[in-house]
Amino acid sequence: MNDPRPTGTTAAKPLPGLVEFICLMAITIGLVALSIDNLLPAFGPIATDFGIEDGNRMQMLIYFFMIAFGLMQIVYGPLADSFGRRPTLIAGLGIYCVGTIMAIFADSYEHLLAARFVQGLGAAAPRVLTMAITRDCFEGREMARVMSFVMMVFIILPVFAPASGSLILALANWHMIFVSTLVLAIAIVCWYLLRMPETLHPEYRHKLSVRRIVRDIKTTVTNRQTLGYATAMGMMFACLMAYIGSAQQVFETEVYGLGVWFPLVFGMIAACMSVSSFVNARLVRKIGMHKISHVALFVMTVSSLINVLIALWFDGQPPLLVFGIGLTTILFCFSLTMPNFNSLAMEPVGAIAGTASSMIGVYSTLIGVIAGGIIGQQFNGTVIPLLVGYFLLGLIGIVIVGVTERGKFCHATHEA
Fold first, then answer.
1. What is the mean pLDDT of the chain?
2. What's the Rg (C-alpha) of the chain?
């Protein structure tokens, strides 16, 4: 792999080696995943503490976080393009810490939802800045390759997140789950302060102005490739949101009743997603972003349809092994689409990576949260709503990619 040093950088200190670079990016963006997944086993205790009887209402702990996470991304991008990546990221992590402290001391469900919203406002910074920093240092297929390694390490965290949440619950109460993420956020801030220089090249630094922000947003949303793949990425992100929102009800309580075994199943599926990201990292430079992501999108859609039919045959509750294999296949393909769709969306807008990453993040996240939330709220004690949702999202994704590429699938004419 190449050294991730941007050409002509004037950083006072060198960038860390590539392995450390990938680990730092992955753990930084992984804070977002950890903030969601390690709370899933605590849904029961939280519901008990606050007298919540409707299981679907507990999904709001995910969606409040994600709505704030989506909306705030538009703020961090322009700030990062003007003031630099590092100070903007550290400021966002500071907001995240404030929200986490609020959650630790929350004394009602409404206060906890407010704390999750503030957490989401801060967590948007890692999402935007890891994308922008990586785009500062790589482009084209190499960016997709590095992002795949980042996503591979990033996805390893959810493998252990529910288990870590369950372990904390076994030793203490759910408040300590937030203490653990607070400690991690502080550690990431220290890591950046000690090891990561500014990656924004001086020639790409912009003066903060409304006119420039509007211009950069217009550039982003009027680029056919960027808008098309950002929309497709939103459809794929909805798959993840629907899964995370429903996972606790599907596996732990209402459908399969796994109880304490829920973290193991959740972790096994996440591990398969991590393998998918590794496969993408190994193949993307040889095969290309278009071919991998397009084929994966088709396979995901067909697999979803097959699993819908199987679920209907079993009245919405197929055997756990059958459902697990089907779901893993779908999410394996999902993991092949996301890094490539993101790289394809970012590819034409490298000169405004911060603002572009913000716009792409806001747009795709809000699509994902809204569509995924709608699917999650249809949960009825079976897996049918989730699988039907996957099929529809895949079908819409195919249409969007087809329109974006003017009907040409699996080509690679403008990949670097």
1. 85
2. 20
Q: Which two tokens stand for residue 387?
A: 């699988």
CATH of domain 19-404: 1.20.1250.20
Virtual torsion, Cα 329, 331, 337, 343, nearest 10 deg? -150
**For 338-354, what is each residue's pLDDT tens digit?**
888 988 888 888 777 66
What is the dihedral sign for C-alpha 352, 355, 359, 365? positive
In the chain, domain spans: 19-404
58: nearest Cα among 244, 218, 183: 244
Look at residues 203, 199, 148, 201 and name the one whose alpha carbon lies nearest to residue 15: 199
Longest dimension (CA), the chain: 63
Asked if 296 and 329 touch (Cβ cutoff 8 Å), the reply is no
Q: Extract the tokens encoding 273.
A: 């997603």
The end-to-end CA distance of the chain, in Å, is 16
Q: How far apart are CA 58 and CA 45, in angstroms?
A: 11
pTM for this prediction: 0.76
In whole angstroms, what is the distance from residue 351 CA to residue 219 CA?
11
pLDDT digits (tens, 9 = 90+) for 147-183: 767 766 666 666 677 777 888 888 889 999 999 999 9
Give, in order, the Cα–Cα distances in Å from 391 to each of 251, 273, 303, 370, 401: 20, 18, 8, 16, 15
DSSP class of residue 83 equals: H
Number of Cβ atoms within 10 Å of the Cβ of 167: 16
Identify the three-state secondary structure at position 44: helix
Judge contact between 161 and 37, C-beta under 8 A. Answer: yes
pLDDT band at 286 (very low <50, low <70, confident <90, very high): confident
Distance separating alpha carbons of residues 384 and 303, to the nearest angstrom:
14
Encode pLDDT of 257-275 as tens digits: 888 788 888 878 877 877 8
Rounded to whole angstroms, the Cα distance separating 132 from 127 reads 9
Contacts for 35 with CB less than 8 Å, ≥ 6 apart: 65, 119, 123, 181
Amino acid at 149: F
Q: What single letter denotes the amino acid at residue 253?
A: T
